[in-house]
Design a protein that fits this description.
alpha+beta; Ubiquitin-like (UB roll); DNA polymerase, domain 1; five-stranded mixed β-sheet; 5 helices
Amino acid sequence: MKDEVRRDVERVVLTLDVNGERRPVLVPVHKTLLEVLREDLQLTGTKHGCELGECGTCTVLVDGRPELSCLLLPVQLEGRAITTIEGMASGSELHPLQAAFAELGAAQCGYCSPGILLAARSLLETNASPSRDEIREALAGNLCRCTGYVKILEAVELAAKSPPHSWGGGAKRRRG
């Protein structure tokens, strides 16, 4: 113990907008958004992956755009809208992407699914009729070890065919 380095950890009080709800948190300034979501807010749908920003497993939406929560600090995000997989469904009603994934069996183990679903949601909210190549590009930062991606691509295409009113949450869908 005598050789242990002792230092005070700086903490800040923040109010984060997570899934449409303002959440006050007291966090060490060095803690990542991934850690705060899982450990402090008990939102465990966002998964730990590589923690280096290479796998996409921890993808969340920040102001509607996919971001890697393992690379973000909560102090950067006060006043910005954060959406996790827990905020994707509307009550007990699945989001069309979630329903399409379930219908087509697009998730194998499911570990990568939250990040993929959120990245796909961001794509479909800006481009309601993406090509297969546009879907591939939007999901390129999300790795899956269980599938060959075909079912995932098909599920995104199926969800794109759902009526815009089924997207809920004021989604702004723009046709191709």
